[in-house]
């Protein structure tokens, strides 16, 4: 199945000059959604994965079923101030300014094998920040997986030390 053809381009969103890759067209297609999840699971099915860590919000859409199919736990990474218990925080650079993500301080035990999942990698800032959170808690990153890579933004360059897998590249 050619998943790339199912993803809709939305011109000038969220601002003029941007072509937004809208995955909602893939998500509403049961066969395409299953195919996307299965391809991501297949890549890591031979690995020992204890936890799937997914980035808010669309990363959760893929992270939760991947965790389920791999028999792993699921850890949400959220924007600052959204998690109820004690957290650790990691900042990352945006085009203009910074942002940050958080994870519960007790989310990962040292030595646990972790797969990081998100829907899309653009500049790589949030994925690299998530990797730093995982490592700060002692997690061993098995891989970082994305449905989509915007290759022209070179985000994977920030993740050179990891096994990065993407299904679709633009």
Structural write-up:
With 170 residues, the protein is an alpha/beta fold. The chain has one domain: Rossmann fold (3-Layer(aba) Sandwich). Helices cover 26% and strands 36% of the residues. It is built from 4 helices and 9 strands; from the N terminus they run E-E-H-H-E-H-E-E-E-E-H-E-E. The strands form 2 sheets. A 7-stranded mixed sheet has the order 5-6-4-3-7-8-9, with helices on both faces. It has a two-stranded antiparallel ribbon with strand order 1-2. The two termini are 17 Å apart. The mean pLDDT is 97.
Provide the CATH topology. Rossmann fold
Strand order of the largest sheet: 5-6-4-3-7-8-9
Secondary structure: number of strands:
9
For the CA atoms, what is the radius of gyration?
A: 15 Å
How confident is the prediction overall: mean pLDDT? 97
**Share of residues in helices:** 25-40%
Shape: globular
Number of helices: 4
- Describe the main β-sheet briefly: 7 strands, mixed
> Ranges with pLDDT <50 over ≥5 residues?
none
| Tally of individual domains | 1
Beta-strand proportion: 35-45%
Query: Could you say what the CATH architecture is?
Result: 3-Layer(aba) Sandwich
Instruction: Just give the CATH class.
Output: Alpha Beta
- The H-and-E topology, N to C, reads as EEHHEHEEEEHEE
- Coarse structural class: alpha/beta
Distance between the termini: 17 Å
